[in-house]
Design goal:
By secondary structure, the protein is an alpha+beta fold. Helices cover 15% and strands 25% of the residues. The strands form 2 sheets. Strands 1, 2, 3, 4, 9, 10, 11 and 12 form an 8-stranded antiparallel β-sheet that branches. β5 and β6 form a beta hairpin. The chain starts with 11 loop residues before the first helix and ends in a 16-residue tail after the last strand.
Length: 224
């Protein structure tokens, strides 16, 4: 008796699961080496970045940073405690939400590089301007109506550190807020994750994030 022909098996759920695992793995490799996605949780970088924006961040080494660059960085040990105190499960869930672009991070920040290692950053001079190494800095990115800083300060950036400030100066908690803390509000260079290169969400704000010209020309660069 002739045996009935077997129908070819459809790929089914196993194939779909394998494809999903491969896609996640490839995405993880790309995001760990080249680009990543971050959620903007606050108004501290207005008008450039708005609350709720998702940005594409190009991973870059600290040696390529200029004054005026916008950077995404891990604030643990400077802007945030090294340990959240929430426990590993909560931390893992929060990191998953951040990785999926559904939520911000309590330890990842976006600010602008104002001072490089070795720079003297002062605010404000007699004309109400911020200066780096004695030279006034033009800051067209500052939120309209804000002054360079309501808080007066004069700091020298140590080797291996950055002085960072938000563009919406009246709302930004940045290096100024940590002057009395260990490290003096200076962020270690190795904590820099990368530079925003594209706003990818919402779609009506889809646009490249232009890299500005260095904010000040001085005799000191990268602490050398």
């Amino acid at each position: 008796m002739e045996q009935p022909k077997r129908q070819p098996r459809k790929p089914g759920w196993r194939f779909a699961l394998l494809a999903l695992v491969l896609a996640v793995a490839i995405s993880a490799v790309v995001r760990s080496l080249w680009v990543d996605v971050y959620y903007i949780p606050s108004a501290s970088m207005e008008p450039l970045l708005l609350t709720g924006d998702r940005i594409l961040v190009e991973r870059t080494g600290p040696e390529s940073l200029n004054r005026g660059d916008v950077v995404v960085f891990d604030g643990r040990g400077s802007f945030a405690p090294l340990n959240s105190g929430n426990g590993p499960v909560v931390d893992a869930l929060a990191e998953t939400g951040r990785w999926l672009g559904l939520a911000g991070s309590d330890t990842t920040y976006v600010k602008r590089v104002i001072g490089l290692p070795g720079d003297r950053v002062v605010c404000c001079d007699a004309n109400g301007r911020l200066t780096v190494n004695g030279q006034q800095v033009a800051e067209p990115y500052v939120y309209p109506g804000d002054t360079p800083s309501e808080m007066k300060f004069s700091v020298e950036v140590p080797a291996g550190r950055l002085w960072l400030m938000g563009d919406h100066r009246s709302l930004s908690a940045d290096s100024r807020s940590l002057l009395g803390a260990p490290g003096g509000g200076m962020v270690p260079l190795e904590r820099v994750i990368g530079r925003p290169v594209q706003i990818i969400w919402p779609l009506d704000r889809f646009a490249a994030v232009a890299r500005p010209q260095p904010a000040a020309t001085t005799t000191t660069t990268n602490g050398q």
